[in-house]
Amino acid sequence: MTSSSRRRAIAIAALLAAAIPALAACGAGFGANTNTPYAPNEAGVLIKDDGSGGKSYGENGVMIPQAFILGPEPGSQIAAGGSAAVYLTMLNSTGTPDTLTGIVADQQQAASAKVPAPVALEPGTLAKTPGVTVDGIKQPLRGGETLRLTLQFKNAGDISLAVPVIARSREYATLSPAPSPAATPTGDPFASLSPTGTATDATATAETGTGTESAGGAEAPPSPAAQ
């Protein structure tokens, strides 16, 4: 190798060393700059063998640059029966608008998935899924698990994918988890009500008040001590 070619090789290696960390940073978190489809760093979502030794990316014209379920903070867990936020970044690679109308969870892993409103997928434009949750999880989530979800599109049809659970730390620490369920009242629903005006108080007033009248209005007989 000549000195000039050696210098060129060193320069290329230095350029790659500087570029790789920058590219990795672009794919971090849910606000990543993902205008160009790439293999997601969370999992091989919709990347399949094309039958000729290569890999195909996407299904029915839909690409998923990013897909994960936000798990608990490290060392914690989302208890069975709880909910977890689902973060998806989708790209419509066709020339026709499409719509994500719903998500179905594997019934052995979760009771349901909720999409607050349909998500429009315009051709060549990234679309995200704010507010989507998977609810009634069957087993506690600690991070590292995978849940299978089926995305339902108006045109692309049903697309099933395995979505990894990512711990809520590092670049994911600022993301919002699923909202906590509203508190459900327990015990006697009338326990906090004031007893004023109840039949019991009315009787007590009639017995101890002036006039010694009973609740029925008739004069009560005098007590033995008063005779």
From TrEMBL:
Entry keyword set: Signal
Region (Disordered), start-end ranges: 176-227
Signal peptide (from-to): 1-24
Keyword Signal part of the UniProt annotation: yes
Chain intervals with Low complexity compositional bias: 176-186, 196-220
Pfam name, any one: PCuAC
Full protein name: Copper chaperone PCu(A)C
Species annotation: Microbispora oryzae
